[in-house]
Amino acid sequence: MKAFFEGIQWLFENIFFIPQDYLRKLELENWFAANTINWIFMIICTVAMVYWIKQLKLHKDNNEEYQDTTAHSFLTK
Questions:
Q1: Which of 7, 8, 59, 71 could covalently link to 64 via disulfide, CB atoms 3.0 to 4.6 Å apart?
Q2: Are both 27 and 40 inside the same structural domain?
Q3: Cβ neighbours, 10 Å, residue 75
């Protein structure tokens, strides 16, 4: 059983963590390049948020938004 867990340890340390090891070494040389994945995710989230807000405004301007407080029973008490 011990060999099984040591095999999992070897797999993660020597195979699956190769990209993380590369990014750790890259961070010492260029912080912005090492955080490229984070920048991409921030851009995607910003674009999605702007799109969502524009859609909310579009529906509100067309009076398609249903704002009846009785839609939820806990709000009527």
A1: 59
A2: no
A3: 9
Rounded-to-integer distance, Cα 4 and Cα 10, Å: 10
Q: Are residues 57 and 40 in the same domain?
A: yes
Distance from C-alpha of 45 to C-alpha of 42, rounded to nearest angstrom:
5
Q: What is the pTM of this model?
A: 0.60
pLDDT range class, residue 63, cuts 50, 70, 90: confident
Q: Which range of residues forms the domain containing residue 2?
A: 1-34
Mean pLDDT, residues 52-71: 82
Helices (H), 12-72: 18-29, 31-34, 36-61
* Same domain assignment for residues 2 and 30: yes
Instruction: Check the CA dihedral 28-29-30-33 and report its sign.
Output: negative
